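REQUEST FORM: STRUCTURE PREDICTION
Request ID: SP-0412
Submitted by: Lab K.M.
Chain count: 1
Length (residues): 99
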Amino acid sequence: MTFHQITNARLAESVAYMGESVTINGSSQKAIVTDLEATEDAEAGGFRPGYAATVYARKDGFPVPFLGQKMTVRGKEVRIKVISTDAISYKMTVDDLAR
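STATUS: Completed
RESULT:
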């Protein structure tokens, strides 16, 4: 078994165990989501609350994400701000639509 096969199998196990449902392109997919962190941005008159998270997904069966794409994570609509990829997965940094 190659290193790629081993890491892909371990990621599949992790997503099956820790993964939760996210919605992208209208379809429900399994992914690992970090805690939705509360954030505050300074703006005129005070601070605007928001939230951000990181979403990890296997490439197998997950739609190819793009910057600015909307998805639903834990019932909140978010926008993909950063995408990192390797041979087996996508790592997406997401935050609320108002940012």
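NOTES: The first strand starts at residue 20 and ends at 24.
Reviewed by: T.R.
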